[in-house]
Amino acid sequence: MALKKSSARAEIKNRSWLEISIDTEGDKVAACAFKAQGSYDLIQELEHLTNELKGQNLNQFQYEGHTPSRLLILEALEKLQGVYKPKEDVEICHCRKVNLSVIDQMIVLGAHTPEKVKAWCTAGSGCGTCRPEV
């Protein structure tokens, strides 16, 4: 059976990026490699992932996490699996004109409470109708 090669990329703008490349034979991952720029945590997670993925069925492989590194890796894996759906970039805070992508980026960068999101990007600091979403 011939090897099928595929790759996927994910990034946090101006901060980190990764590219995962895999070779599959049938439904099993035969080889996995990565290129990345980012934190030590990201590189460690990718090294662990490449070892864990070998021999696994890519479409049944489960990966979770809420750290910035794991969210980036999850996005790339979902792209490789063909199930990634980008979020629609809608305006969440109308008073301050803040889109969902900005709020998401604040969360990835470490704003894990509504108060931090508000302090970092001003979302939710106007009339308050968007605070539940923030």
Q: What do the pLDDT scores average to? A: 90
- Widest sheet: strand order? 1-2-3
In whole angstroms, the N-to-C terminal distance is: 49 Å
Beta strands, count: 5
Question: How many alpha or pi helices?
Answer: 4
H/E element sequence: EEEHHEEHH
Q: Shape from CA axes?
A: elongated
Low-confidence stretches: none
Class per helix and strand makeup: alpha+beta
Helical fraction equals 25-40%
Structural description of this entry:
The protein is α+β, with helices and mostly antiparallel strands and 134 residues long. 34% of the residues lie in helices and 25% in strands. It has four helices and five strands. The protein has helices spanning 40-53, 68-81, 100-108, 114-121; strands at 4-12, 16-25, 28-37, 91-93, 98-99. Strands 1-2-3 form a three-stranded antiparallel β-sheet. It has a two-stranded antiparallel ribbon with strand order 4-5. β2 (16-25) and β3 form a beta hairpin. The radius of gyration is 18 Å and the shape is elongated. The N and C termini lie far apart (49 Å). The mean pLDDT is 90.
